[in-house]
Structures are given as structure tokens and as C-alpha cells.
Amino acid sequence: MKRQVFLTLVVVLVLTLSLRASQQPGDTNDLQTLPDYLRYASLNNAELQAKFEEWKAALEQIPQAKALDDPKFTYGYFIEEVETRVGPQRQKFGIMQVFPWFGKIEARTDIAAAKAKAAKQRYETTKLKLFRNVKEAFYEFTYLATAIDIAKQNLELLQHFEEVARTKYITATAIHPDIIRAQVELATLEDILRSLEQLREPTVAKLNSVLNRPIDAELAWPKKEQPREVRLDRQHIVQALKRANPELAEFSWEIQAAKSRVKLAKKKFYPDIGVGLDWIQTDGAVSPGLSGSGNDPVILMFSMNIPLWRDSYKAAEQQAKANVRKIQRQRTDIENKILSRVFEVLYDIEDSQRKTHLYGDVLVSKAEELVQASETAYKAGMIDFLSLIDAQRMLLKYELDYERAVTNNQQKLAELEMLVGTELPSINKKTVVK
């Protein structure tokens, strides 16, 4: 136990030094990739820092649990001197130390140690939730940047179509409504682009809140990275969850603390023993030459409380046992809910993966071919302008749907790793996912 406490204190010291050496809220020159955001959030997030201090406070409870109660000092002054054979007694001093019954200190220490480990798991849970929130906001920020680029590219494409319609109108091979349709589509797409651009402010504010930065602080557009895929082996995921999920681990340590409380409650049936000394100041005897004159008596003292109210001790023991059962049921309930949510998230990940491959491998490329073929056909007078606009709308929709599916996939993957409690191994893009 001492070795575990020592190692835990070393870890806390290292983390404390890391926090003190952390970036200041304004140092964001390197915030471009997801690891940059995660590192900054882990060093600066206020909620995470609060959980870290809670863990440190719980560790400080361990030496307090090990300590004995303070010894008691007593003093007495004889208002009327007590005359004895060897002389009058004027005052007395006493000190008493109470020792708990065997096992009480050990049980108290076990409770404090288990509580500290539970606090550490709460810190880890908060860190996982923070990372999930950062990833979710980061992927949304990345989606927004990509969506704006797609909207701008489609705006340029529509402007090109307008020029094509104007050219055909000048040569009397197109009608004036084609130009109007192009202008209407341009106005609509410009409005979509403005909405996307205005969405940057609340998206950045959400990121700043988890990074513990001023809400209105600027953030550069993030670097777009290759999306991750993981092997969705359900049996492996469930096993990893039961092994690594810090919320379940927290309840396990709370159960250990509750069981130690049962042991402590049983010790109430046994007395605490006190050992002490009393010293009485005695002046010299009235009769001269008396043997032992003025000798101060020293008294060895023993005391103990009498565990008389045994019904209340039994009630305390039953209460502690009921608390163990309560926490065990809570852990089971939490595990069931987490497992249920895991399978919901797994469905969402597989669904978004399917959509990602559908849009990325098939629909976007086909929509691009359709736009090119429709433009050629429109120039040749084989289709009307509305068909060309429909092709452009389809391309815009599929491109945005593809980016939305990728974003949803990465956000759900972040939630899955939060639930499991650890990062899942990535797989090659060409590997078939179960």
C-alpha cells in the first residue's frame, strides 16, 4: 500500500509540474491539427484542472486516515491543597493517547486510498469527455471549412453557367429565362455561403469554451486530415470497455471503499484503548526529615470506551452493507447503459461509413460526370438550362453529404473511444470492416 501511495504521489507531482509549464490561454500559434487542440485542452481546460485538484485533495486524505487522534493534555489545580504524608499536592498534569482497536486504522486507510483511486478515475473520465468534445467541435470546424470551399467552387461553377447562358442568348440559341434562372441560383447559393461563413463564429466559440480561451478569440482554419477507420470488432470493443472504461473503474473503487466501511463499522463493537501518564506536583512535608518528602507521584493511566449501544453499531454495519449493494447495482446499471450506447454508436459509425463510401466512391464522381455531360448537352441544345441547374444542385448536395458523412463518422468514432475508455486501433482504408 505504501509503495502504491508513493507512486501515485510521484504521478501527481509530474502532472502538477506539467500543468504549471502549460501554455497560456493566448498561445495558439500551433493550433492547427487535432493533436494540437487535444494537447492545449488537456493543459488548460478548467473542468479538467478542477478534477485534477480533486484527485490531489483525495490523496491528501490518506495520511490523515493513517494518523492517530491527537493526544490529550490535562491540567488540574487544587483549589484547596491536599495534605499528604509526604507533603501538600498543588497541581497535576496528565497526557493521554488513544489507540483505535486493531484494524480500524487499516480500514480507514483503505477507504481513503480507494476514494483517491476513484477520484483519479473521475479525472480520467472527465479527460475522455473533454477529448470527445474537442474532437466533435474540431471535426465540425473542419467540415465548415470544407463546406465553404465546396460552396465557393459551386458558386464559380454557377457563374460559369450564367456566362454560358448569356453567350447562347446573345447568339439567339437560348432564351432570357435561362439567365434569370442562373441569377436566382446564384443568389440562393450566395445566401448558403453567407450562412456557412456566419456559422464560423459559434463554431469557434464552442472550441474556445473547451480550450478555456476567450469566447471571441480567433482560430485559424484547421488542417484537414485523412479520416480514421477502426476495426469494429464488437467482442474486442466490449472487452476493452470493461477493462478500460474509467467510469466503471471509479465505481469499482467506490465498491472497495464501501466494503472497507463495512469492516470499519464492525470494529465499532470493540473499544479504543487509551494510555497515559499523570504527574502530581507535591511540596515538601511539614515534618522535617520525613522519608519521601516532596516526591512527585507519577501515575500510569489506562482508559477505554465501553461499546454499550450495540444496536446502533449493528445498524451502522447494516447501513454500510446496504451502501455496498447500492453501489454495485449502480455500477451494473451504468455498465448496461454504456454497452447499450456503444451498440447505438456502432450502428451510427457503420451507417456513416457506408454513406462515406457511397458518396465518395460513386455518387460524387457520377454527379461530376453528369455536370460535364449536361453542360455539353446544353451547349449543343439537347437539354434545357433547368436540367443543367439540376445537375449542379445534385453535385453540391452529394459533395456536402459526403463531407457530412465523414464528419459524422469521425464524431461518432470519438464518442465510441470515449465510451470504451481507450483509443481503438486504426486499420488500412483497403481493409474490409466487419
Please, could you describe this protein's structure?
The structure is a single chain. The protein is α+β, with helices and mostly antiparallel strands. It has a domain at 114-270 and 311-434: Up-down Bundle (Outer membrane efflux proteins (OEP)). Helix content is 67%, strand content 10%. It contains eleven helices and four strands, in the order H-H-H-H-E-E-H-H-H-H-H-E-E-H-H. The protein has helices at residues 2-20, 34-44, 46-59, 61-66, 104-170, 176-198, 200-211, 234-244, 246-266, 310-379, 385-420, and strands at 72-84, 87-99, 273-282, 298-304. The chain has a four-stranded antiparallel β-sheet, with no helix packed on it.
Topology:
Blueprint: H1 2-20, H2 34-44, H3 46-59, H4 61-66, E1 72-84, E2 87-99, H5 104-170, H6 176-198, H7 200-211, H8 234-244, H9 246-266, E3 273-282, E4 298-304, H10 310-379, H11 385-420
> How many strand elements?
4
The helix fraction, in percent, is 55-70%
The major sheet is characterized as:
4 strands, antiparallel
One letter per element, helices H and strands E, the order comes to: HHHHEEHHHHHEEHH
The strand order across the widest sheet is 1-2-3-4
- Low-pLDDT runs: 9-27, 430-434
Shape summary: elongated
Average pLDDT score: 87
Task: Compute the CA-based radius of gyration.
Answer: 38 Å
CATH topology of the domain at 114-270 and 311-434: Outer membrane efflux proteins (OEP)
The CATH C-level class name of the domain at 114-270 and 311-434: Mainly Alpha
- H/I helix tally: 11
**Distance between the terminal alpha carbons, to the nearest Å?**
44 Å
CATH level 4 superfamily of the domain at 114-270 and 311-434: Outer membrane efflux proteins (OEP)
Overall structural class, as computed from helix and strand content, comes to alpha+beta
β content, as a range?
5-15%
- The CATH architecture of the domain at 114-270 and 311-434 can be given as Up-down Bundle
